[in-house]
Amino acid sequence: MTYYSRVIGTGGYLPEKVLTNEEISKTVDTSDSWIYERTGIKSRHIAGADETASSMAEIAARQAIEMAQIDPETIDLIIVATGTPDRVYPSTGCLLQKRLGVKHAVAFDVQAACSGSIFGLSIADQYIKSGAAKTVLVVGSEVCSRIIDWTDRTTCILFGDGAGAILLTASEQQGILSTHIHSDGEYEELLYCPTSTEQQAGYISMRGNEVFKVAVNTLGRIVDETLEANDLNQSHVDWLVPHQANSRIIAATAKKLKLSMDQVIMTLEDQGNTSSASVLLAFNEGVRDGRIQRGQVVLLEAFGAGFTWGSALIKY
Ligand code: ACO
Questions:
Q1: What digits encode the pLDDT tens for the residues 157-204?
Q2: Which residues line ligand 1 (CB under 6 A)?
Q3: Class (C level, CATH) for 4-171
Q4: Strands (E), the chain
Q5: pLDDT score, position 200
Q6: pLDDT in tens, 124-137
Q7: Active site includes 94?
Q8: Which end of the chain is more exposed for a tag (fewer CB within 10 A), N or C?
Q9: What pLDDT does 284 receive?
Q10: How far is the CA of 87 from the centre of ligand 1 (A)?
Q11: Centre of ligand 1 from the C-alpha of residue 39, in Å
């Protein structure tokens, strides 16, 4: 018997502190109108000094577990997508495992920048479909604020902190219909963040305009690939849940799908780009506010450093 990966719970966490465009405009040469017109962002959440990727992941994960009403001990696999881990090692997945007290699971991290949670969903789906795991927790959690040069107006306006979680279990009912993931390491120089082991430690460097153009084209192609693989057309998709990097990139993907912006879950305006957390935060919002209903078809997609990109088509 082949099983589907069915969504049984979602969760999300945003730190309490909100940083508005106006506040950023006081420290770098920018304005609320420039940021909003070019990106669609008005504010973002910033983690407190005592918050980490694993502490935020725990809150999002506990919400997903509560929604699913399962015994956490039944989770066999924990996948955390993050580019801002608490430590180089142990993995943030292991730290989350400890926080949740889930003894029997295996836990690890995936690093695919903003596409991380789509890569996580893809791995989870392979484990469930093959029978290697039954119940899988996927979390995207990021403290982007700690890898941002707050004097660089080209990047500091874009990012925010937060965590999103999704819980999947093997089911005879449909769930994840397909995942597609890709990478191309040729684009390293357009978007990267040095590690603390490199001489110039630390901050995101991005040639935004060039990234923008590749992102729009690539996300258009992933839509075609996903629909073709499932023998579906645009009219079968009820919701687009995109990575939240730029409202103009999102609008281009919605147009490609012939979806109105009312069928797109947008969190960008008050969250900014939370990297690997963004798609799962948006999915959680759509589920919890009742827009995404059981039986509907939802297209999740993301694009990020690497470059990496991917999609997950889910029958919720
Ligand atoms: N305020 C005011 N002016 C600014 C700011 C700012 N915050 N930032 C840049 N500018 C200036 C530039 O210096 C430039 O000035 P110039 O014309 O005198 O040289 C001008 O505005 C235009 O700059 P562009 O970079 O061409 O602006 P663009 O319209 O491309 O918007 C942005 C920039 C928002 C970054 C956009 O390119 C973008 O969203 N790119 C894609 C980001 C993305 O998808 N990343 C992938 C995921 S992230 C990850 O994986 C970690």
A1: 999 999 999 999 999 999 999 999 999 999 999 999 998 777 667 899
A2: 30, 34-35, 38-39, 113-114, 153-154, 157, 191, 208-209, 211-212, 215, 245-246, 249, 273, 275, 303-305
A3: alpha beta
A4: 4-13, 17-20, 43-46, 77-81, 106-110, 135-143, 161-171, 176-183, 191-192, 205-206, 239-242, 297-304, 308-315
A5: 66
A6: 999 999 999 999 99
A7: no
A8: N
A9: 98
A10: 30
A11: 8
Instruction: Point out the catalytic residue in the list 45, 144, 193, 243.
Output: 243
Cβ–Cβ < 8 Å for 191, 211: yes
273 part of the active site: yes
pLDDT digits (tens, 9 = 90+) for 272-289: 999 999 999 999 999 999
Question: Across the chain, what does the average pLDDT equal?
Answer: 96
Q: How much is the pTM?
A: 0.97
Rounded to the nearest angstrom, the distance between the alpha carbon of 38 and the centre of ligand 1 is 7
Catalytically annotated residue among 114, 144, 156, 193: 114
Smallest CA separation from ligand 1 atom 29, residue: 38
Which residue's C-alpha comes closest to atom 36 of ligand 1? 208
| Pick from 234, 299, 236, 230: nearest CA to 264 | 299
137: CB partners within 8 A, 6+ apart: 61, 64, 65, 75, 77, 78, 79, 105, 165, 166, 167, 168
Task: Tell me whether domains 4-171 and 176-315 share a fold.
Answer: yes
Which residue has its alpha carbon closest to ligand 1 atom 22? Answer: 209
User: Any idea where the domains of the chain sit in the sequence?
Assistant: 4-171, 176-315
Give CA torsion, residues 293, 298, 304, 306, to 10 deg.
130
For residue 142, count other CB atoms closer than 10 A to its CB: 32
CATH superfamily ID and name for 176-315: Thiolase/Chalcone synthase (3.40.47.10)
Answer yes or no: 182 catalytic.
no
